[in-house]
TrEMBL record:
Species, as recorded: Kwoniella shivajii
InterPro entries: D-isomer_2-hydroxyacid_DH (IPR050223), D-isomer_DH_CS1 (IPR029752), D-isomer_DH_NAD-bd (IPR006140), NAD(P)-bd_dom_sf (IPR036291)
Protein name: D-isomer specific 2-hydroxyacid dehydrogenase NAD-binding domain-containing protein
Domain of life of the native organism: Eukaryota
UniProt keyword annotations, A-Z: Oxidoreductase
Domain D-isomer specific 2-hydroxyacid dehydrogenase NAD-binding: 148-320
PROSITE patterns given in the database record: D_2_HYDROXYACID_DH_1
A Pfam family matched in the record: 2-Hacid_dh_C
Positions of the UniProt region annotated as Disordered: 1-27
TM ranges: none
Amino acid sequence: MSITSSSPQESSQSSPTTSISSLPRTSSKPKVLLFGDRSETKFDDIIREIAEVHTLPRVGYEDMVPLIKDIVEKEGPFVAFGGLFLITDNFPGKWDKGLLGPLAPECKLYVGPGAGYDKVDVEYITSTGAMYANSPIQVGKRTADGALMLILAAMRGLTPQDQSVRASKWRAPIKTLDWCTSTIGIIGLGSIGSRVATLLTSIGSQSIIYHSRKPSPTAQPQWGYRSLDQLYIEADVVVLTCPLTNETRGMICKESIEKMKDGVILVNVSRGEVVIEDDLVQALESGKVMRAALDVFEKEPTVHPGLLSNPNVTLSPHVAPAPDSMGPPMNGEVVENLIRFVQEGMPITPVNLRELESKGFQVGPSKA
């Protein structure tokens, strides 16, 4: 991987090249730093064959800061850094300059677990001339499976029926929706949204519409692209699979809900901050939103009391991808990104190539 500054203030002779082959080494192998030890996949042995791997214990942000500084001083520099996921509170809540600063500028790849990277300061990483890669494939598949479960449960009204049985009232008089004929609108047709649409299509959904920043070239022909406002107008069910960005934060609010059909169903497996929960609670109480199924929350792990008390809300504690069994496949994806970077100079799923190029860095396989 070559990330070369092409700043007009520097001549080609003085432009720093930060490809793997040009970085200083104290051994015959490039050095890689892992937060956590092993992914428990076949990739653990491969990365150790091609790189000198150092590991750090899984601790929180405050404890991790001095550990990274110390290991860089003793064993660095490192060409890449990867974080391996474990269900624990001891995982840095943010990846920023305060945490990653000692690794720069020699570190040219940071790989985080999972599809989302709203807790990663990608702008800072880009400023150091490094790539950030996520690991969206496995978690995306599993999150989409969880989303399908929530969509079907909400459309059939499973939660209020469950509560009715528990209250010895047998069936509750609720309205159900047929996923074969209802219009299901998906906001965000990335890897998760695309799989959700594919799964719905496979069980007979005939009216799927979506909104993304632009029409998806991989969307099936029968999936209709819509503007955001038009999707609100048409959809019987609104499914959120979008990333958290400045544009999507608070997107589902009083104003957007008012544009939706009366009795709409809302499903969220993206990020909790996409929805303003006060506004959603009011819409549920008025009946504007008939039911909601939520895997993520605005201030998780705290859940709005109006959601907790509403029988028409299905609550899931950020477990759509079934995280208890998600670790190995997702962590294997992290390590596979590192392997591809060391071997070929480019990870599998980089997210900031365009930003690097806009700052004058030339990104591509090293010719050295």
